[in-house]
Amino acid sequence: MRAAVRRVSACYRSPRAHGLRRAARTAALFGLTVLAPAAALPDQEPLWEFGLGAGALAFNDYRGADTAHVYPVPVPYFVYRGKFLESDREGLRGKLLKQDWIELSLSVNATTPVRSNSARSGMPDLRSTLEIGPLLSGHLWRSADRRRKLDLRLPARAAFTVEGSPRGIGWFYAPHLNLDVAQYAGPGGWKLGLLMGPLFAERRYDDYFYSVAPQYAAPGRPAYAAPGGYAGTQMLASLSRRYPSYWVGLYLRHDTLAGASFEASPLVKRDSYWSGGFGVAWMIASSGRQVESSE
User: Fold this and answer.
1) CA angle 120, 122, 123 (to 5 degrees)
2) Which of 6, 70, 199, 289 sits a CA distance of 20 to 30 A from 170?
3) Do residues 118 and 155 share a domain?
4) Residue 85 belongs to what domain range?
5) Which domain CATH number covers 144?
6) Tens digits of per-residue pLDDT, 137-172?
7) How far lies 214's CA from each of 17, 20, 111, 123, 218, in Å?
8) What is the pLDDT of residues 79-107, one digit of tens each?
């Protein structure tokens, strides 16, 4: 912009051009004044957006199993940008504790039922489980353009069986480092997520999946009592993008159980494996109210 002002000044060197030079400088300064605040304004997005689609997940019957299945799954897409509550690709979280460096939100996970697994032949089936609990995130680093961020996340989830009379099976902990990389600042473009961290579980949790009661002992499957503690390490990569009329996402996860407290269980058949999934959701409706978005 200054170069433009100098060129205008060079073209009008006579005293009669003084007014034109002043007008040119004023116009340049006005342009800078108008454009600078506009670039800093937050994006305006709908208060809420809703979509629905389908996808598939492929993973082992349980961590350490040597059998895997592919499950078709519905893919709901819901984003809410409220004043005290947000829901997006990072999950559901309240803003009661949201500072520049720390945030408190909700962590949810689930497992599928296990039936007719050869390693568990003659043993009771495993019910689906639901895990829910707090997630404390510490914001370790942000790039100046906010396209990259590194967080330390500390989820702690209480697990329950999904049945007529649910019962608690202990707590599961999954502290990890999470790196998010966005193609562009704002909601557009591809979003890459990378996480890695150790896993820990209470004795009751490991007992549900890996213990073998004496009455279920068999040749090649001795009785075993899972002690709880270190439960291996997880690494996960995800990639997603929101288009005007649909959303697409996929993930790939690697688990290793090497050194896990229950590694000696006869129900652990593999100590390293991959899982993954993908999904597509089409936008159905959105709010007519626009709000500031920090995405």
Assistant:
1) 60
2) 70
3) yes
4) 46-293
5) 2.40.230
6) 999 999 999 899 999 999 999 999 999 999 999 999
7) 101, 97, 25, 11, 9
8) 887 765 665 655 555 555 556 788 888 89
Is residue 11 located within the same domain as residue 106? no
* Statement to judge: residues 213 and 130 lie in one domain: yes
- CB within 8 Å of 134: residues ≥ 6 apart: 104, 105, 106, 107, 155, 156
Task: Please say if the pLDDT value at position 78 is more than 90.
Answer: no
Question: Do 32 and 53 belong together in one domain?
Answer: no
Q: Do residues 268 and 124 share a domain?
A: yes
Return phi, psi of residue 214, to 5°.
Answer: -50, -35
228: left (phi over 0), alpha (psi -120 to 50) or beta: left
CA-CA-CA-CA torsion for 110, 112, 118, 119, nearest 10 degrees? 10
In eight-state DSSP terms, residue 123 is S
For residue 102, give both structure tokens.
């720390």
Q: Give the tens place of pLDDT for each residue, 13-72.
A: 444 444 444 444 444 433 433 344 444 455 788 889 999 999 999 999 999 999 999 999
Q: 294: which 2 tokens?
A: 């920090």
Query: Is residue 97 domain-shared with residue 18, that is, in the same domain?
Result: no
Structure tokens at 103: 């945030």
Pinpoint the alpha helices (H) of the chain: 2-11, 18-40, 203-210
Q: What are phi and psi for residue 185, nearest 5 degrees?
A: -70, 140
Provide the percentage of residues in the chain whose pLDDT is more than 70: 78
Please state the domain count of the chain.
2
pLDDT at 295 over 70: no
Residue 122 shares a structural domain with residue 142 = yes
Same domain, 277 and 159: yes
Run of H or E residues at 178: strand 176-182
* Interval 243-249 mean pLDDT: 95
